[in-house]
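ok trying again, last paste got cut off:
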Amino acid sequence: MNEVITAKDKEYEAMEQSSAPGPDQAMSDRVNNRSLRPRSEAFKEFMTTGWDDNEPVIEPLESSHYIQARLDTLGKAFPGERIVIPAGQPKVRNNDCDYAFRPDTTFSYYTGLGEDYEAGAVLVLNPVDPDSPEAAAGKTHVPELFVAPRANHYTQDFFMNAHYGEYWVGPRAGLQEMTAMTGIETNDIAQLSDALSKDVGSEAGAVRVRVIREADPQITEMVEDIREANGFADPDGNTNADDKLHEFAAEARMCKDEYEIREMRKAVAATKHGFDNILRKLPSSLDKPRSERMLEGAFNAISREEGNEVGYDTIIASGAHAPILHWMRNTGTVESGDLLLIDAGVEVNSLYTADITRTFPTNGKFTDFQKKLYQAVLDSQQAGFEAAKPGATYSDIHHACMRVIAERLHDWGILPVDVEESLSPEGQQHRRWLACGVAHHLGLDVHDCAQARYESYQGAAIRPGMIFTIEPGLYFREDDLLIPPEYRGIGIRVEDDVLMTEDGPEWISAGIPKQIDEVEEWMASMAAEGAKA
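nice, full thing came through this time. structure:
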């Protein structure tokens, strides 16, 4: 039998070790010590030849038809200023392994880029010359994207760069592709610093710069350096100016355009399919260790098949886990006879996400006691829906939902005071069993528009185009000694997604059953499908 390691192999090994890094090797480079990569000139030359030059035709994204209107609105809010919106960088999971990249929400909104486009990219809105033809046509800014060029087979980065090289990560969108997809002129990220510095100054007529600070610390640092070098070394003032940009961008997303509404409907439809898959798997998962995670996997598989990812960590909360508002460990056993609370949403490729919660009897049938509690939550949700109408304030939803909850708790002998005392700001005793909110804006973020002002959110009138959740619940913790034993360890939430139209609110998740009889029928139908699989 021949030797596996030959004398020649040892000779090659000695040659490799002779050029190995020494004891002063930088920590950042040591991740490469795990493998021996070819570095010969012969290899490098060989790798840049013999590849097919055919490239796919890049079509404009559907979102690109809506981007210019968004950019125009943003530009008019900050005339004469340069606006910088980074996509952000990948977040490290461990060592040199990153989480799947998701661009910053503001970047995605103003570029129309979803999925994993494009780590390290930056959108810049450059103010136009007041005497230019663009200004005469009503333009305030010209958008420009900056991205890393493609590391395709014409470059050594193709096989040498594990972050961008297409040998490693597959085809990427470079300058030409980004321009084609978005309709925004795209340039090399290496030009960014010079582009941001152009005409910046403190004198009259000079350009000032604002940045979405939280998106990419490296870009924020670059902007701060440019500010300091040009007479704007005012950390508090700069932060306040940047916050106003972030605030405006959040409030701009409150009313969705027709494209966004279509994407939200897609997200809801995919989420329904995810719930279907859970219910197919539920009977075979009962009483098995970590069966919460089995059901989580059933939903998450659909999110990857029909969308980009889950819009947030899926909550599968069975039995005593259900009153835990954000139970995301999903390590429990789903036991027959318990109630099972599932809060989940599919994020589609455009990054718009649904947010749906349903509560199921694990054995397929509600008990009379479970029905009583579940119906109270349904009635609360319906009251919130009826309160939501154009011109009503957003907080009207909250008050309508809470009144029903307080009344039922009083009827059951649980509330220690009368209903009005509890509902008053000085009372709020009913909130022991519903401490969270009952509605929030929804869109690119599951808790969308989070940087909006209070008066633009809770105190604002509901307008057509807004999409939000209505999600009251009852959460009776297992360790709550102020309620009868039969209530303990039960959590119920019903959450739906609502579009405000000119004619009033629309349940865009109406196709996902929630009435008691409909839920039981749905469970039976999906269980039958699962048994056939």
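cool. The chain has a mean pLDDT of 95. The CA atoms of residues 16 and 36 lie 8 Å apart.
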